[in-house]
Amino acid sequence: MSNNSSSYESDLENSIVLNVNLDALKKSASNVFQVQCTSIQEFNEGGFHKVYILKVEDGKKYIGRLAISVNPQWKTESE
Fold this sequence. Notes:
It comes from Racocetra fulgida. By secondary structure, the chain is α+β, with helices and mostly antiparallel strands.
């Protein structure tokens, strides 16, 4: 295992779990899209992001991606 791998594993072990305030996410989405966000469904989670499907009143669906707090260097490299 390379030094990068062990450093990455250490970063993950010490990372903070992302607790998402879904009500705040709904409010933010409503402000951004100028229409009421009616539901949020967790879609997927990777090493660096949580992905949600946001449904709004007019029937449209949007994808929301939130970064998970890990070592910023690893997150940037994942982009």
